[in-house]
Amino acid sequence: MHRTARLVTLALFVVASLCMTPTTQALPRDWWITTYYDCSFNVVGYDLFDCTAHHYYVGAQTGAYKHYYQEECSTSNPVEDSWWYNDGGTWVTYNNQTCP
Known about the structure:
The protein is an alpha+beta fold and about 100 residues long. The chain has one helix at about 1-20; strands spanning about 30-35, 45-50, 55-60, 65-70, 80-85, 90-95. Strands 3-2-1-4-5-6 form a six-stranded antiparallel beta sheet, with no helix packed on it.
């Protein structure tokens, strides 16, 4: 009887430990921003993910062109800096394409 009680207590402890483990989320390694532009290169919106893991969407999330910039949070070293052109719904690398 004592062995059964100990096993039940142990099983309850294991289940409770698994159910009550704290969840944590590490801060991101990089921050990035995507800026969207119309055919005249006017900003129409942006999408920002910062070093505190906040994600912001402002304005239109598409356009004729977009600029993507990514940087490491801890060192401020650039990771990526690229321009893109919206070619009928598919983003392709910008090579001086103009709007139709």
